[in-house]
C-alpha cells in the first residue's frame, strides 16, 4: 500500500510545523481504532493527517481507503474469531491443567505451547489489522505493527517484525537515550539487556513477565555478541544455516511464551517439564488425536489448525503485503465477503474470547 511507504510517513512528519492545541491533543488521545491496544502512534505521524482532512487537503471520504479498510478489517476479524479463538480453547485447557498441578503428556504440552504461540500472534495481529482498517475508513493511515514475525531467523529480526511500534517506542525513548549504538560494545550490550528486560516488565509485574523479559534480554545480548564475531557470509546465506537459525529462533520464542502466558510459575514449569519429557506420563495406547490430546480436548481439527498456521505464517504474504496489492474489484469483493461471512458465523457459534492484549 503506497500510503505505508517510509518516505510518505516522513513527509507527514515534516509537515508538523504547527502548534498542538487542546483540541488536537484531545483528538489524538481519543482516536478509538488504536486507543486500547495499539499500534502505538506518535503525534507527528497522526496530526498532519487529521489536519489535512480538516483543511480539505484530502477528500473527506476516500472510497479506495474505504475498500482497503474493509479488506484488512475482514482479514483481522477472520484471524481473531476463526483462528485465534480456536487456538484459545486448547491453550487455555492445557495451561489451566498445568497451573492447577495436573500433568500433560509430551504431545499435549507441545500442542499447548504451540496453540498459545499461534493464538497470541493471530489475536494481536488480527486486532491491529482491524484497527488499521477502521482508521482507513476515516482516511487515516496507522503504522504497521507486524511483519511476519515467525519468519524471523534470529531474535533481533523477530523484534523488528513483532509489535513494531512498541519496539520503535522503546528505541526512541529508552535505547537511544541510553546511548544506543554510539557507545562501547559492553555498554551497548547493557543497553540491549535493559530494553529487552523492560519490554517484559512493560506487559506486567508478574514473575512470568520478568522471566520472559530476561530470556529475551539474554537472547538479544547473545545474538549481538554473535554478530560481533567474524563469520563467513557464504555460510550465513546457506540454506542449512537459515533452517537451523529459524528452528532455533522459533523454538526459543515458543518456549519463552510459556512464561508469558502462565498465570503462575509452577504452571510454566509443569508445561516445560512435560515438553522435555522430564515428567513421566503414560501415553494412551491409541495414537489418535482424540486419545493423544484428550486432556486438552484436542482432535484432528486441532492438528490441522497447527499445520495450516505454520503454512500461513511461513509460506504466505502477511495482511499488510496483501493490502499492498489489493485492488477494489469483483474478485476481491468476493474474498472480503467470504472472510466476513466465515467470521460472523464463528462469532455466533464460539464463546466470546476477549483480545489478549486487553489484559496488559
In words, what does this structure look like?
It is a single chain. The protein is an all-alpha fold and 360 residues long. The chain has one domain. Helices cover 67% and strands 0% of the residues. It is built from 16 helices and no strands. It has helices at 6-14, 22-29, 43-54, 63-99, 106-137, 155-161, 164-175, 185-203, 207-228, 233-236, 239-261, 265-275, 289-292, 300-315, 319-324, 330-349. Helix 4 crosses helix 12 (265-275) and helix 5 crosses helix 12. The longest helix is centred in the N-terminal third of the chain and has 37 residues, at 63-99. Residues 6-14 have low confidence and may be disordered. It is an enzyme of class 2 (transferase). It is found in: Cell membrane. Belongs to the membrane-bound acyltransferase family. It is a multi-pass membrane protein. This is MBOAT family O-acyltransferase.
Question: Could you give a short description of this structure?
Answer:
The protein is mostly helical and 360 residues long. 67% of the residues lie in helices and 0% in strands. The longest helix has 37 residues, at 63-99.
List the topology elements.
Elements: H1 6-14, H2 22-29, H3 43-54, H4 63-99, H5 106-137, H6 155-161, H7 164-175, H8 185-203, H9 207-228, H10 233-236, H11 239-261, H12 265-275, H13 289-292, H14 300-315, H15 319-324, H16 330-349
Helix pairs in contact: 1-3, 4-5, 4-12, 4-16, 5-11, 5-12, 7-8, 8-9, 9-11, 11-12
Amino acid at each position: 500500500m503506497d500510503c505505508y511507504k517510509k518516505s510518505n510517513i516522513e513527509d507527514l512528519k515534516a509537515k508538523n510545523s504547527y502548534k498542538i492545541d487542546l483540541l488536537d491533543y484531545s483528538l489524538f488521545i481519543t482516536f478509538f481504532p488504536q486507543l486500547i491496544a495499539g499500534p502505538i502512534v506518535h503525534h507527528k505521524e497522526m496530526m498532519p493527517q487529521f489536519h489535512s482532512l480538516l483543511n480539505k487537503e484530502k477528500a473527506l471520504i476516500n472510497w479506495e481507503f474505504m475498500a482497503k479498510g474493509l479488506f484488512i478489517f475482514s482479514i483481522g476479524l477472520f484471524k481473531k474469531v476463526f483462528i485465534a479463538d480456536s487456538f484459545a480453547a486448547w491453550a487455555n485447557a492445557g495451561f489451566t491443567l498445568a497451573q492447577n498441578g495436573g500433568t500433560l503428556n509430551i504431545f499435549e504440552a507441545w500442542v499447548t505451547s504451540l496453540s498459545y504461540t499461534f493464538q497470541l500472534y493471530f489475536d494481536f495481529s488480527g486486532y491491529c489489522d482491524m484497527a488499521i482498517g477502521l482508521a482507513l475508513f476515516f482516511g487515516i493511515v496507522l503504522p504497521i505493527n507486524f511483519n511476519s514475525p515467525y519468519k524471523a531467523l534470529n531474535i533481533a529480526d523477530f523484534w523488528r517484525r513483532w509489535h513494531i511500534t512498541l519496539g520503535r517506542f522503546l528505541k526512541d525513548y529508552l535505547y537511544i537515550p541510553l546511548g544506543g549504538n554510539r557507545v562501547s560494545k559492553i555498554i551497548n550490550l547493557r543497553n540491549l539487556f535493559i530494553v529487552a528486560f523492560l519490554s517484559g516488565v512493560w506487559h506486567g509485574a508478574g514473575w512470568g513477565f520478568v522471566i520472559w523479559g530476561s530470556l529475551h534480554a539474554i537472547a538479544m545480548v547473545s545474538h549481538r555478541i554473535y554478530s560481533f564475531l567474524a563469520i563467513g557470509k557464504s555460510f550465513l546465506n546457506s540454506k542449512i544455516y537459515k533452517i537451523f537459525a529459524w528452528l532455533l529462533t522459533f523454538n526459543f520464542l515458543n518456549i519463552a511464551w510459556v512464561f508469558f502466558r502462565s498465570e503462575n510459575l509452577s504452571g510454566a514449569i509443569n508445561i516445560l517439564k512435560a515438553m522435555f519429557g522430564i515428567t513421566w506420563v503414560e501415553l494412551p495406547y491409541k495414537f489418535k488425536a482424540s486419545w493423544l490430546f484428550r486432556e486438552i480436548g484436542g482432535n484432528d481439527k486441532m492438528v490441522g489448525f497447527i499445520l495450516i498456521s505454520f503454512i500461513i505464517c511461513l509460506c504466505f504474504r502477511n495482511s499488510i503485503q496483501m493490502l499492498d496489492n489489493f485492488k477494489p474489484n469483483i474478485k476481491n469483493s468476493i474474498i472480503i465477503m467470504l472472510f466476513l461471512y466465515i467470521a460472523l458465523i464463528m462469532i455466533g457459534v464460539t464463546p466470546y474470547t476477549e483480545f489478549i492484549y486487553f489484559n496488559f
